[in-house]
Amino acid sequence: MLLVTLGLLAGIIVDRAASKSTNAQQADRNQSDKWEYAVISDLSWDSHRKTYSARICYFRTSGCHDDDIEAPPSEGDAGDRVTIKTLAKASATLGESGWEMIGEAPTGQFGNARLYFKRRQR
Known about the structure:
The chain is of the alpha+beta class.
C-alpha cells in the first residue's frame, strides 16, 4: 500500500512539473506570435534621376512608414524586365531582414502587383 501511495505521489509531482513547463512554453509562444507587416505598394519612375524605385510600406498603428528601394541598373531593359528587377531587389531587401512573402494582390494603373510580407516582431 505504501508503494502505491508513493507511486501516486510521484505521478502527481511529475504531472504538475510537466504542465508548468507546457504552460510556460505556451505563454512564450503566444508572446512570440506577434507579427509585423509590410507591402511593396508601388513602382514608380523618377524622371529627374532617370530610375525606377519600389515603395515599401511598413505597417504601423499610426499608418505607413515608407521606404523607397531604387531599382538596379537597367542595362537597357524596359517594361516587364525592369519591373521584375525592381520587385526582385525590393523583395530581396526585405528577405535579408527576415521578412517572408505571404501574398499578392493586383493593383495600380499599370497592373503592378502589391506584394505582402510578414515577420515576427522583434
